[in-house]
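Quick start: read one record
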Amino acid sequence: MARDLTSHHQQLVDDGYTIVENAIEPGLIDALLSDVRRLESELDRRPADNRFEGNRTTRTYNLLAHGAIWQQVPVHPVVLELVEGVLGPQALVSSLASISLAPGETGQVLHADDQIQPLAKPHVATVCNSMWALTDFTAGNGATRVVPGSHLWDSPDYFNGEPDVDTVVAEMPKGSVLVWHGSTWHGGGANTTTDEVRVGVAMNYCAGFIRQQENQQLGIPSEVMATFSPQLRQLCGLGMYRGLTGNIEKRSPAEILYGDPPQVQVWDAEPIDPHR
């Protein structure tokens, strides 16, 4: 039975974020957590040691290139329904990364994920992101802090340091997902525990007309892309947005490279006006 997400859609409109508890199947969560640990070890991941990414936070990027299990994340129906409710159909995978926030990490500076875009706010949604909880997210171990309603603000464009605003700690049990509008101000919390590593997966999307954060077309090897479903290849940007953007000779890259079903080019889809 499909899950009724009506209240979550409305909270995204009103508050700019929502938490869906126990959204992801426990078996998938455990498998993803295991693979995060595998990749961190095999790729020898270390904290970036900067103010934004953290001094005690380990991140692994471009996860779709690192194992078939990650193909299940962008297309998860619960998350994708909420994201498309914000961005509209034909959203794209912008980036997919794991984030392991260790004890001693300080709070991340509050920010909006679309702040790099030179658009006056508020504006039509260009970004919608999500955080999958692979472990419990608590106030003590660094659960994400969000600023409710900030997606509707007309300023500021950038906070230089910690702003004097009220935040809500997005506590959620393992298997839950936090989804937020790209204009919603937020930031990772401080991990004040002594032994808890807060592990999440940042599954980020953008509207079909926006350039993606990670270059999915070149960052994912062609032999790996060939194992994706047509839906996932569309999400990675190998389709045409609204029958136009991203085309090659009026055809989608996915059709040309992988034999996916053809898309109708926008001009061919329009009824012919004999008086034009």
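The two ends are 49 Å apart (CA to CA).
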